[in-house]
Specification:
CATH superfamily: Rieske [2Fe-2S] iron-sulphur domain
Number of domains: 1
Order of helices and strands: EEEEEEEEEEE
Helix content: under 10%
Largest sheet: 4 strands, antiparallel
Strand content: over 45%
Oligomer: single chain
Structural class: mainly beta
Shape: globular
Distance between the termini: 11 Å
Number of helices: 0
Strand order of the largest sheet: 2-3-4-9
CATH class: Mainly Beta
Radius of gyration: 13 Å
CATH topology: Rieske Iron-sulfur Protein
């Protein structure tokens, strides 16, 4: 499992839920949408807000500071266009959520 970090029990992240975890020293926001866990950089590129504390609407996660919104599937912004956050590969295994560093 080299390159994978065990970050959370799968049952701890319910549908529509979000949280922030540490992946090898980097804060990463996790969300569960349509039964799948997605992972993105926790830091908004605008003013550094914690994405894990923002609102989740469908696949869009909103920064709690100024409502910049990003699609958790690919990191692209709905607003403002052209902005982006990093996405990380996720898998669930043995009741655990793992994120690739």
């Amino acid at each position: 499992m080299s390159g994978w970090v065990d970050v959370l029990g799968a049952a701890e992240l319910q549908e529509g839920g979000r949280c922030t975890v540490d992946v090898a020293g980097k804060p990463v926001a996790l969300v569960r949408v349509d039964g799948r866990v997605w992972a993105v950089d926790d830091t908004c590129p605008h003013r550094g807000g914690s994405m894990g504390q923002g609102d989740l609407q469908g696949h869009f996660l909103y920064c709690p500071l100024h409502a910049w919104s990003f699609d958790v599937r690919d990191g692209t912004a709905f607003f403002p266009r052209g902005a982006r956050i990093a996405c990380f590969e996720v898998r669930e295994e043995g009741g655990r959520v793992l994120v690739r560093r």
